[in-house]
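ingest -> validate -> predict -> emit
validate: passed (alphabet ok, no gaps, 250 aa)
predict: started
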Amino acid sequence: MTHEETLERDGIHLERRTLLWLPIAAAGGAVLGSAAGAAQEMGAAARAAAFAPLGWDEFGERWRALARELRGTPAENDESFAAQLAGMIARVPESALPKLAQPKSSGGGLHGGPSWFLAPCVTVEFRMDPGATLRLHNHPPLVVVTLGVEGEARYRHLELEGEAPPCTEIGGELLARETRAGLLLPGRTTALTRMRDGIHGFVAGPRGARIVDFTVGLTDDVETFSYIELSETPFDAERRIYEGRWTGKG
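emit:
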């Protein structure tokens, strides 16, 4: 009987060469199944690694590398940077965060200072007594992600509306529009970039608060910082626009 001959049995019609290929096909299927299983295991391992906790040293090096890529690039890249940084911060256990050994008092129940530095990155910690206020202020061209660590704090973001005098002009009048407001709880973040929400401030809740700014300097100009005093009621209630003035660094 040749390979071209066919078998007829129990109503099944198969060619001999088909029968010869069946063991090979079965072996191939086993190999493919094994490869698919290995790929799934590798994918699961990669996903687990993407969400695994980060030690502070590893986090710092990753943050620094990302910040170096940001410097010298258009401000449009800030959003991607801020989102990636917030994602990395979420992987750092609270116990791994650097803690300020001797916070400096600024009065009014506010204490703080730089807690870690690896150019161009710096963390600034603020410890706030119940009801303490970190006054509204602007920033030089920076990207800042603020993390809630302990307690709770109300935050508020604004942007300058229209033309405004430079912040070095103390008493210079301006208009600012409230863009975001919310509650900062442990593990949550809020951010500002060069293009949006560049003015922010915080008020601690009844249990106080500990918050940390993750800051990347994109300029050496330290003169572009000032506190801001706003009117209590909005100039334009519908658009949440307030009258204000620069009050300087003090």
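The domain at 56-248 is CATH 2.60.120.10 (Jelly Rolls).
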